[in-house]
Amino acid sequence: MTLLSGSKLLDIVEKVEKGERLSREEGIRLMESNELLTIGYMADLVRKRKNGDYAYFIVNRHINHTNVCANLCKLCAFGKKAEDPEAYTMELDEIETKAIECKDQKISEVHIVGGLNPDLKLSYFEEMLRRVRRALPNVIIQAFTAVEIDYFAETEKISIEEVLRRLMDAGLDSMPGGGAEIFSQRVRDKICEKKISGDRWLEIHEAAHKQGLRTNATMLYGHVETIEERIDHLISLRELQERTGGFLAFIPLAFHPLNTELEGMNLSRTTGYDDLKVLAIARLMLDNFDHIKAYWVMIGPKLAQVSLAFGVDDIDGTVVEEKITNAAGADAGQSLTKNQLIKMIKAAGRVPAERDTLYKILEEGF
Ligand code: V47
Question: What is the mean pLDDT of residues 272-288?
Fold first, then answer.
């Protein structure tokens, strides 16, 4: 085939065409390669094999209930000390009002994550879930990263299993994939030294999967990590997925340096080329994940749309209000309408499928 003539990746192409698993070394070769179209060709093949012509989106709403955070990671521009003038913590009434406001918008998911606020007890989160559930009985509540779950267990002095059980009793349906960053401790020491280890993040997701919660996984890239550390991160996720099958989707998160403590390190925003490569290589390495999601808030709607030809089958959702990436200088906006998402997908020649958190198709075609 002309596209592939002279390619140095032909052995990998052959393996992908046969549906064989790629090794760590092959993953590293892909990361080192500049053959974006060859990588994209392979990722598109896998994407099509798994998801046909569907490209998914969700009508959802994010709520970031507090930015007060005990960790204050260097990578993050969102977290604040309690005494900071920009610090905020939403009252439960305010959260309930935000949920009630969504009643007419036919959302299927509420996505709730926040900082590690020492003043908030587990009972606050249980009540939050009950009130959101009462306001929106049919939505799926996807809430609290593994980092938050670990913090609840530590502050309440109870096990992860107990935290998960109590939150599930109150209405928790699924966990998002945040807080994973890069699992390598070398990197965590540089960008999020107080955050739970990579092993702990994986342990908490494993515990969640064992209790029947489906979860997502992320990887924050484009800061101080090496290519090897990216691939090792993906392989750790692949291994856990092999054991539990509990992950729904993988979402690479492009690092935004503005207003973070890493800003002074001369780090610039990721390039479009790297964003597409990471998405496509994730599709190739994570052969046991059904879905690869491009989070348009981080890479912009235009690149998210193009990524549909590079292994991506999901462009996330309407979002409505997003504070974490926006604090770090994201300029893609905070909200897209359902019609905008449908238009993006159709213009890429794919069939728009409105899904719920668990990838049940609610409506298709449009
Ligand atoms: O946990 C923090 C990351 C995450 C920055 O599971 C940053 O479906 C870039 O996890 N630059 C929150 N990234 C977002 C997240 C997410 C988003 C959409 C969907 C899902 C899902 C998950 O954002 C944090 C952290 O890893 N983050 N600071 C920054 N400066």
Answer: 98
